[in-house]
Specification:
Layout lengths: L11 H10 L2 E6 L3 E6 L1 E4 L4 E8 L13 E12 L12 E15 L3 H15 L4 H6 L2 H8 L2 E16 L6 H12 L4 H15 L19 H23 L7 H20 L11 H4 L14 E2 L4 E2 L12
Helix pairs in contact: 5-6, 7-8
Length: 318
């Protein structure tokens, strides 16, 4: 799952609480077979186990064959309108929280183990009914167990994404949470609570132009793209030096310089725009992006990037 570092959650207790609160998950196996199933999340001394079952008539369990499977836990989600921002140059997006768990499904054949698995599920979901479950005739319970396939997955890795507008400043995150709280949709209100809990924990987000504000985890995306942009500018500059003036082909040389300048400027604009990459390449390359295209003939000395800087209005030449 694509997830920028500032959207990831590392706290194990928070992850387990989320998975248990959203335990009706999607199991995806090879051949793109998917089933919506209840999941019991439990911990052993050394492992995180997902107890699951499906109807025996569901052919998906025959796809296991020792291959890795994916279990998707989806939390609250909601549309975020650009009307909710103070700045006009914003586009729509969608906030959500999700956990992807990976592991190899193992079918449970032992009848006592199957009964124990179902009893744990009842105890977790409906503890008041547990005494009546225990009082059921074993012959009846066994007939029910014959109609399902129990299996467990030992989790080998977890992927997380809490997309809560962390690429925006704290003020904008608070505005979004306030709007979601007023929604008639219970999922939107739950998302607002999740955003506020995240803000209370110190996640202030990224401000405009990618300025770091608050206590955000480092994002390698910025440093990698910055290095790429610098390399592109140096490469374009070295190629310009090789172009010699020629009166007979002045138009061609000018066009070549324009192309080189455009490539360097495009690479330089890639990092630190403060927007979520999940909003799409279209937003980055069209009027939706809300970005000003800086002239390639200027260099901002303060922010070390081409163009008239929107924050300091620097117009120093280079």
């Amino acid at each position: 799952m694509y997830s920028p570092p500032y959207n990831r959650i590392e706290d194990r207790a928070e992850l387990l609480a989320f998975m248990r609160a959203n335990s009706f998950a999607v199991l995806v196996t090879r051949a793109l077979h998917a089933s919506h199933l209840p999941v019991l999340v439990r911990e052993t001394e050394n492992e995180l186990i997902l107890d699951m079952h499906m109807a025996r008539a569901n052919a998906q369990w025959q796809d296991f064959l020792g291959d890795e499977a994916l279990v998707v836990f989806s939390g609250p989600h909601a549309y975020v309108s650009p009307r909710w921002y103070e700045e006009k140059e914003r586009v729509p997006t969608w906030n959500y929280a999700a956990v992807h768990a990976y592991g190899v499904p193992k079918v449970i054949q032992d009848r006592n183990a199957k009964h124990a698995s179902q009893r744990r599920l009842v105890a977790a979901l409906d503890p008041q009914w547990l005494p009546r479950f225990d009082a059921l005739r074993r012959k009846y319970v066994d007939s029910m167990l014959d109609g399902i396939v129990n299996f467990e997955i030992a989790v080998t890795r977890l992927e997380t994404r809490w997309k809560l507008s962390q690429n925006r400043g704290r003020r904008e995150q608070e505005l979004i949470a306030a709007e979601l709280q007023q929604s008639a949709d219970c999922a939107a209100r739950s998302l607002a609570e999740l955003m506020r809990a995240h803000l209370a924990g110190g996640g202030a987000g990224l401000g405009r132009h990618g300025d770091r504000r608050g206590e955000n985890p480092p994002d390698a995306r910025f440093s990698r793209r910055s290095k790429a942009a610098k390399g592109a500018r140096r490469g374009a500059a070295s190629q310009r030096k090789e172009i010699q003036p020629d009166a007979r082909s002045g138009g061609l040389l000018a066009a070549q310089r324009d192309r080189l300048g455009g490539a360097a400027a495009g690479a330089a604009r890639a990092p630190e725009d403060g927007r979520d990459p999940a909003e799409g390449a279209t937003a980055r390359n069209s009027s939706w992006s809300g970005e000003r295209s800086p002239p390639t003939s200027r260099w901002c000395a303060r922010r070390r990037r081409p163009g008239n800087c929107p924050s300091c209005r620097c117009s120093s030449g280079r």
